[in-house]
Structures are given as C-alpha cells and as structure tokens.
Amino acid sequence: MSLIVQKFGGSSVADAESIKRVAKRVVETHKAGNEVVVVVSAMGDTTDELLDLAAAVSPLPPEPREMDMLLSSGERISMSLLAMAIKNLGVDSRSYTGLQAGMRTDKHYGSARIVDVNPVRVRQALDDGLIVIVAGFQGFNDETEDITTLGRGGSDTTAVALAAALNAEVCEIYTDVDGIFTSDPRVVPLARKIDTITSEEMLELAANGAKVLYIRAVEYARRHGVTLHVRSSFNNNEGTLVLNPKEGEQMEQPIVTGVAIDLTEAKITVVGVPDIPGKAAQIFKIIASTEANVDIIVQNVSAAATGLTDISFTLPQDEAPQVISALLERKDDVGFESLQHDDQIGKLVLVGAGMKANTGVSARLFEALHLASINIEMISTSEIRISVITRADNVKEAARVVHAAFDLDSVEEAVVHGGTGR
Amino acid sequence: MSLIVQKFGGSSVADAESIKRVAKRVVETHKAGNEVVVVVSAMGDTTDELLDLAAAVSPLPPEPREMDMLLSSGERISMSLLAMAIKNLGVDSRSYTGLQAGMRTDKHYGSARIVDVNPVRVRQALDDGLIVIVAGFQGFNDETEDITTLGRGGSDTTAVALAAALNAEVCEIYTDVDGIFTSDPRVVPLARKIDTITSEEMLELAANGAKVLYIRAVEYARRHGVTLHVRSSFNNNEGTLVLNPKEGEQMEQPIVTGVAIDLTEAKITVVGVPDIPGKAAQIFKIIASTEANVDIIVQNVSAAATGLTDISFTLPQDEAPQVISALLERKDDVGFESLQHDDQIGKLVLVGAGMKANTGVSARLFEALHLASINIEMISTSEIRISVITRADNVKEAARVVHAAFDLDSVEEAVVHGGTGR
Asked: Where does ATP bind (chains A, B) (predicted)?
C-alpha cells in the first residue's frame, strides 16, 4: 500500500461543487488501495474576505498573533466540509488542524517555519483505514501555545512536510495548470509541460518567477527527498514530477529545462567607487543592513586613469528605496560619486541541470539574443543557471527566442489558466 | 478592582461596525478600572452560512465531529477581529479559543457539557493588564483531543462558566433587548422590564419560552452563585439582574414576576386506561424510552362504572409522532382504548418566588381567565410556578389579562426587537 499526500489549493476548494469534485478524486485514490492524506487551503476568496474584515475593524497594521488566529479559521472550514463531502461518498475521514496534526513551528506569526512534524493522530487515523484531511498553511508554537501561519505557499509546505514525516511515496500538488512549463505560456506560447525536473532545477525556476510551486516547499522537498507531482485538479493527466536524483545519478534530460523571466527587479549602480580593497564589502554591508535581497552583482573593470570603478546590482523593485537612502546616508564614508536607479530592466533565467555537462550553453544563449538584436546588460551564472539582464521591453521576446534556440518549443500552443496564492 | 465577564451574541458582532461598537464598550469598562473578559459568538450570519455550505456538500446528516470543527471556526473570526478593533483604540488584548481558555467538556459533539474550566492563560493575561477575549460556544475534550461545541445558547454558558471559574463580580449578557420582561412584549404590549429576578424564577421563565437567556446558562449560574446582568448592547441602561439569594434571604419583590406563553407543545390523551396500579408507570416508561420531554401530566378521576381512566400529557410538538407510535406498538400490552392528539393548545406560565408566601394566587389567576371567558384544560403547579393549558388561540389574550390581573402592566408600551440564537 502506498501513502499519497494530495494538496489542493484555494481555487480547488472554492465552493461546494469544487469540494465535491476534490472529494471524488480523493476517494478514487483511496479506493485504488492507497493511504491518502489530503492537505487543503482555505476556500477561494475566504482569505481575502477575512483580510477585508480586518482592515474594516482597524486600519492599523494588525497584531500578527490575532491575524494568524483569524486566517487559520479558513482551513477549518474547508477541511471539515471536505470531510462531509467524503462521507457523502460513503467513506470515512477525519480532519485535523495544524495543531492536531503535530505541525510544530517557530513563533514567527505570519511566516512561521516548521521545526518539527509529529503526526501521531494522522498516522493512527490512517492505520484505522480513514482518509485524513489536514489544514494547510497553519501550525502551532508550543512555547507560546499559539496558532501560527506559514505565509505564502504555506499549504504546499504543509503537504511536503507531512509527506516527509509520513514517508509518503509522493506528494501531489494539485493546481489549475497541467504542471510545470518550460516557460510562462502567457509569454512563450510554445512553452510545453515538463515531464520530469530535478528539485535543484525547480528551485531555480521557483526562485525566478515560476509561481506554480513555492520555493520553501521545494527546498523542504529537496532536503527531505520528497518526490513532488505537480498536476491539474481538472483532469487525470500526468503532470510534472519533481525528483531528487542521488549524487552522480544521471537523469536523461535536455541541457536546458526551462526559461523564466522576471520583471520585478531594479538595478542600482554605485558610480565612482574608489577601487581599493574592502570598498565592495563596505557597500554590501550597508545594503545587508536593510535586509534587501540582492540578486545579480557586477563590478566593472576599473578605469586605471581615475582609480574609480562602478558596482551594479539588482534587487526587488520595492526594496530599492531603502537601499538607496541607506547608501546615500553613508556616501562620504564610502566615497562614491553618485547612484543610478533603473527599474526598466528584465531578467531572463535559463535553468537546466544538463548545463553542468555541456559546454557552449552561454555561447548559444548569447548568439540567440544577438540574432534578435537584444542587448545584454548583466550576466550571472551558476552550475545549473544562467541569468541575463536586458531592457524590460526586450525580455519577453528574449524568452521566446531563447526557448526556441534550446529546442524547447512545443508543436502546439499551451492553454493558459490563472493561479492562486496560499 | 472588579472582574467583569461580558458576553456579546452574534447580532452584537454582526459586522465590522458592530465589532467596533463592542470594542468601544469593552475598552470603556476596562478604562473604568475593571478586569474584563469578553465572550463572543460567531458573527451574525456566519453559522447559517456554514450550515448552508455543509448542506451543499452533503445532504446526509453531517458527522458531528466535523460539524463542530466547522462551526467552531466562526468564533475564531469574531474574536480575532474584536482583538484588532480593541487594539485600534490603543488597548492591548488577547483572544483565546475554547481550548486555550481551558474549557474542558465531555465528548458529546454538538451539545457538549462543560466538565471543568481551567482558565490559566486567561488569568495570566488579566494579570498582565490585558483585556481577554474568549470564543464562546466551544470547548475541547481531552480524551478525544477534539473540538466540541456546546449547542444552543452555548456562548451564554461559556460566559457563566468563565465568570464562575474566575470568581467574577458579574457576568453581563449583552443582547438586543433591554433585559428580561414580565412577558413577551410582542404578546403583551404593556410588559415591562424586570429590575431583579431570582435565578430560580429565571429558570422557570427560560424553561417556558423566554428566549433571552438559555436555561443551561441560568442553571450553571445558579449552581455556582454567578450574578447575571442581562442588558442591551445598544444603550447604557441598567438591565435585569439575575440574583442568587441565600436560603431564607428575603428579596423585596412582587408575588408574580413574569408571565410566559408557549405555543410549541402538543397534548396526547391516552383514552380508556385500566385503572389498576402500575398502568401509569408502564405508560410513562414507554414514553421515556423515546426520550421525549413530557411537561404537564393530568390523570382524570376514574369512572367507577367502567374501571377505566384517561391520562393526558403535554410535550414538544415535534416529539409527538415517535411517542404516538411507541404507545400504539404497545397498545394491547397496556390495554388502553385509543389515543387522541391535539396540537392546538397553548400554555401560560405564571412565575414568581413571591407565590411561596402568598395564598390565593391560583384563585386570582383562575378568576382572571374566567372573566375573560378562557377555558382551562390542564393545570400544573410548583412552589414558584403555575402552568395552565388553554386553546392555542386563547393563550395570548390569557397572557394579557393575567399580566394585568397581577399588576404587572407598565404605563407605556415596550419597544420590540428581534433575537438571536447562539
């Protein structure tokens, strides 16, 4: 008998009809002879409605403890309704809150991290032949004895953590698309579904704008060797398997797995930095003090005549203002001349574990962009990723030409759906 | 410093504006130098909406455990929103679920009884100077480790149980009327607000149709000596104090405190029962097996010629069918001739601790009904209560004439509001 964890997001349990459809799917998996643990998010709009109510009673930033108490009510509703819908199909199930499922977290309300999973009641209920339903997105801290929530993508993390703790065969993430795509189908119409991908590659894609899986869940899956299966809740097609090949194990796969783009970054250039040891360290120490997430860094070659250099880096657009003011505050200290800020950049990221063993990937990438007359402003590479910065209005075209250049194009256009958050 | 428990029902926290009004009231009580524990129900329509969802996912009677999980989410929403609204007024508070407030119950999902209240966290938070908010209507069972709900009027019971455990000075029950009335103002327009009433009298009124307080909460308050104050959440008027005078202690009060009517009962008459010892016992054993709640019982004097008698009793209308079929099943055994069923009866109940020391109350009651040409079909009396059964369409008129006959009439008509459930 296999143990399967199935996670359904908010759009999959948006109303009574959707819940009944999920119940049917869960019961089918159970009847096929599997042990089934279902992780659910709050119903469709519940979270937004609760946030609206919170804003209506108090315009002040809410107390995180009370916000978690408020938001964690959403999964209690969806999970108990799912239990009823399953019972309606003649099968017994039991729903458990994060607390009851043993989902222990630290005490960071709103974005708690799982520190331990001890699913005693879940295991017992499975042994009793029941389908088990667990509230996603929530846990508890045993020092404060309070409810916590896990933040964006928290239900994915709940599912993966339970799969790891219960040694599940697979953790199925149900969504409204057919799986992970080689690129965003809204940008690259010929993007195609990926059948298998390594968790390492998936991490890069998730970190660079692929919204189907959340990076924390993928990290957790990778660390604990959990196999993920991202698939559609609207059909029975195979989706994308996210695997964890062992060190040295070869997976048959293309050089490049996917092409992601990101239009949410800005570039800051520190102009006229004295080219002496320790200056870069000083600058990035100042930036780190703002807790900004710097992505790509490029330092120009020093102009020997002046003894000055420029340092450019990218970061999320909304973090730019505080970094700029932190740097300006220490301008005389550091001794730079000026700052330039540019939020009209786009980032293209090429991901593929196959790059490790293939030379010439960068050359093929640059050639493709050159043929399309797209200028590259910054470059950054790792073992399985190449990122380039272009003008913002070039990046979608860049994605299409690169997608084609690496033979990722499908023969037909993908069908585009929306996406969810929790 | 006094400790005050304040309970607000669903209509008092129906929307963001109502919650802000409750927050203001709670903060005022806190600023006046009191320790305040607030018990809240789910917001206005939440419970009905959740029940509708449950019915939509499964027409089967829902599993009680999952129903309790579902319904208990309602108070988590209202209590965390109230905490935010209180914070918005600059005061710190903390909200606790039934589990966190130490509300231990038996394991009867849907109508659990409180077995122990151990409000350690509540006491600690009060000691820290915080306002405490507790979810009404819910508790937990530590054998099953599950959430339970307390059934109708459960939030009142939560408030009273907390008041008892914390040794509160008073438990204020906020509602949409000004207090307990001498009769239902919709029936008796001259009904007036009662200033003080004993818990004994309140029990009789609650058991006989006064919907403002629930009988379980009054019983709990009486057993634990908790003073209740039933008052309006829309003004600052004094409401009705429900007191627990010590044995022999005299309260200055009228003979009769209130007049209740009830149109939800039916009368069953067992015709032609052999008038031999043990027959009545046999009949009521059969009735008891259906768990029906028999109210008034009258046995006619036996007609010596036939050796047969009739036994009549009243019970809630919806319990009549199963009682009738249980009796018919054993017809030959018991040896009665036939059954008569009558759901066109009304019950009038006169309540007053002053009756104990006053003779002639029954005579005055019967005289008033006689003058109004209202026929009495059954009578039942206790130390502080007289119940009479009349035709259903006479009972409202009966209430008005009796209300006047015992000098309960106010000089002006009461203002009528609606009522709530949880």
From this structure: 7-10, 175-176, 186, 211-212
